[in-house]
Design goal:
The protein has 3 helices and 5 strands, in the order βαβαβαββ. By secondary structure, it is an alpha/beta fold. α3 links the parallel β3 (127-132) and β4 (169-173).
Length: 202
């Protein structure tokens, strides 16, 4: 990836986590460009343009033009506010051995791409949280423990194999508490690992 492609986006590392936001589902085999867009909000210049699907507009009568907007109200200057916190989540369907925290070989390539995004020039100041999730098969306690072990295994892989600084990564497990597909608690999408990137905005 091209050096310094999103240096201007990084303002400071933060220790607090922002309010909940829905994850971008990336599945089992996302590209490095897709991962960068999901976690960092931008991709390197050599990535292909993102595909945007625009829903079709149904035919019908033409709406009248909107009324002119009222003149803007100029507010009195106020004290500057601290930078807002932007939380970006990406969900990956990382494959583990059944009932285990052992990462299967087919998922290591995805984690290698995640590590490449984390290690891109200019991204060194961003911290990440790795969150494990399970479906509802099994007990609450068992799923919580398994999700924590799997998040820790992903962190260990990124640190030990891909040399991402451990201080930039935090691992946690949510068990079966936050399914994406609530109508089908045993859906594969609920057995996921989310990676959360946090950075200042503004």
């Amino acid at each position: 990836m091209r050096a310094g492609w999103w240096m201007a986006m990084v303002l400071a590392p933060l220790n607090a986590w922002a309010a909940e936001a829905p994850p971008v589902m990336l599945g089992t085999n996302p590209s490095e460009c897709q991962i960068a867009r999901a976690l960092l909000g931008s991709a390197p210049p050599d990535c292909p343009p993102a595909v945007v699907v625009v829903p079709a507009t149904p035919a019908g009568p033409v709406a009248p033009p909107p009324a002119p907007a009222p003149p803007p109200v100029v507010a009195a200057p106020s004290a500057p506010t601290p930078a807002a916190v932007v939380e970006r989540k990406a969900a990956f369907l990382i494959n583990f051995d059944f009932g285990s925290a052992r990462i299967r070989a087919e998922s290591q390539a995805v984690l290698d791409r995640v590590a490449a995004v984390m290690a891109a020039p200019g991204a060194e100041a961003v911290r990440f949280r790795i969150v494990g999730h399970t479906d509802d098969v099994g007990s609450d306690a068992g799923n919580l423990a398994l999700s924590r072990r799997r998040a820790a295994a992903v962190k260990d892989y990124l640190v030990r194999v891909r040399r991402i600084a451990a201080a930039r990564l935090d691992a946690a497990g949510m068990g079966k508490r936050e399914p994406i597909d609530r109508a089908n608690p045993r859906a594969p999408e609920n057995r996921r690992v989310e990676i959360v990137a946090l950075q200042a905005n503004g």
